[in-house]
Amino acid sequence: MSYEDAKDYVNKHFKDKKVVFTNGCFDILHRGHLMYLNEARALGDELIIGLNSDASVKRLKGDDRPVNNEDDRLYMLENLKAVSKVFIFEEDTPYDLIKAVEPNILVKGGDWAVDQIVGHDIVTGNGGKVLSLNFEDGYSTTNLISRIQGRS
């Protein structure tokens, strides 16, 4: 789906709604993800996720990632009740997707400073809010993979 298609989708389905946007790899869903996505959804009417493509995850996380391919990650996210829509992006950041979607609220996990969140300039420039949500210690895909491999 092109960014123009994403923009058209949002304008058609989420017109006059408070749209929250977040992004990530969401490689192996865990409790920390679900708590974060539920908190994000509670901030608005609709939650859109920008999902890193397989190629993007590989560039960011290394050759052994993602564990789950983008179709499987997309399917799992789209079937969470907190999630309204998922768009896959190919770049390392969702900047162009955020520009197309123009969310009212942009969120990332608490390990991100607000001024470091990609797209903060777009959202604040449109009068929206950018928030760093609670980060649940002990929940990460990297830690989970290490535990599965017996390294922690």
UniProtKB/TrEMBL annotation:
GO MF entry, a single one:
nucleotidyltransferase activity
The UniProt keyword set, sorted, is: ATP-binding, Carbohydrate metabolism, Nucleotide-binding, Nucleotidyltransferase, Transferase
Q: What class of enzyme is it?
A: transferase
Ranges for domain Cytidyltransferase-like come to 21-144
Q: Which reactions appear under catalytic activity for this entry?
A: D-glycero-beta-D-manno-heptose 1-phosphate + ATP + H(+) = ADP-D-glycero-beta-D-manno-heptose + diphosphate
Enzyme Commission identifier(s): 2.7.7.70
Family annotation (Gene3D superfamilies)? HUPs (3.40.50.620)
Which InterPro entries does the record cross-reference, listed alphabetically? Archaeal_FAD_synthase, Cyt_trans-like, RfaE_dom_II, Rossmann-like_a/b/a_fold
By what name is this protein known? D-glycero-beta-D-manno-heptose 1-phosphate adenylyltransferase
What's the source species' lineage?
Answer: Bacteria, Pseudomonadati, Bdellovibrionota, Bacteriovoracia, Bacteriovoracales
Q: What gene name is listed for this protein?
A: rfaE2
